[in-house]
Request: fold
Amino acid sequence: MDRQQEYVLRSIEERGVRFVRLWFTDVVGTLKSVAIAPAELEDAFEEGIGFDGSSIQGLTRVYESDMLARPDAATFQLLPWRGESNPVARMFCDITTRDGEPARSDPRTILKRALAKAADMGFTCYVHPEVEFYLFYPETDPEKVPVPIDSASYFDHVSRSTAHDFRREAILNLEEMGISVEFSHHEAGPGQNEIDLRYSDALSMADNLMTFRAVIEEVAIQQGVQASFMPKPLIEAPGSGMHTHISLFEGEHNAFADPTGPYGLSKTGRQFMAGLLRHAREITAITNQHVNSYKRLWGGDEAPSYVCWGPGNRSALIRLPGYKPAKVQSARLEYRALDSAVNPYLAFAAMLRAGLAGIEGDYELPEPADTDVFLMSDMERKVAGIEALPGSLVEAIGVMRQSELVAETLGEDCFDYFIRDKQHEWQQYRRQVTPAERRRFLSTY
Reply:
């Protein structure tokens, strides 16, 4: 037993923890949880907790269903919303077979594989997400249009606003769990909010994002509102994105930074961006995994629809944020496609592998887009070599199916399952008859 595990066992005893929740996700990013008594934790560290992996979406096949959840002691935290009386803790788990081999379709393991490849090339990956979400009045009928808790817009300060209290309580909970918050504010849509997490290594950030969602949902229950990470919940309001800043470090040095290079970006940074651009269409089914995701991407409101980049260009897929000359360590790329309903483990893995492919293949970075690409004509975009992102989930699946990079990143089992699951989602969606269709075709005159 290592020192971290010993620390966890000691902390549980000293703090009187009554339950320990072991967390992991299925392939689409749904948080899974099993609670164990503290007396069982030492065995869990040594042997894992057995469960039926075939009952977890995409994790394994029925004839090899016995799996083990092995808690990662480094992720131990108390759940602040459970209070100080009979406290509850949580840890994230890695999923293995009975033989101790990593489960091929465990999203956390898939991200670890991508990070190991980066490490073999001498890099550590850091990310910084900007998470948007909506707050609605509670409603149990999904057929009704949700009602936002306010009518405010971008950066508005609304006195006595529910959103103020909500963000404050959520941030206090996050910080109690060791998750640092950089900014929070009201976003452009009514009832829409944004909380930006301070940059961290990609694996810790994926864990933090799953914790973030749990915190937001718990605070929503406490405050009598409904929180939604749906990419596009309202027709006339902006969707909820998760713009993600990404950078590579070589030791203490930011590998993207070069004050003498074009736009202050190093050759490594330019190659990484070129990789993201070349493989963007292939990874879109992962970064935007739901049918509703494409209503955000193609709904305007600064959501990216075209594969291009630009320094400061908020209509581009990749923006190059400016940084002060004295802060070259903050050089980074902002990938703007992700939405808030993403599985962060798979998304970070796909983004990282796409960028690393650019470095390995010495990809050449195309010219930046210095204008609003939405205002360009189709011919102008074609001449500029600017492709469109997939316009629907079924199109994104078709592109992903042909991608060797995504297949290698996810592994054969996860790749096949993910495609089947998303095809099923599309089939269910296209059978629906919507209120908009009825209004158009059943109108009376």
About this structure: The CA atoms of residues 352 and 410 lie 12 Å apart. The chain has two domains: 3-102, 113-436. Residues 202-223 form the longest helix (22 residues).
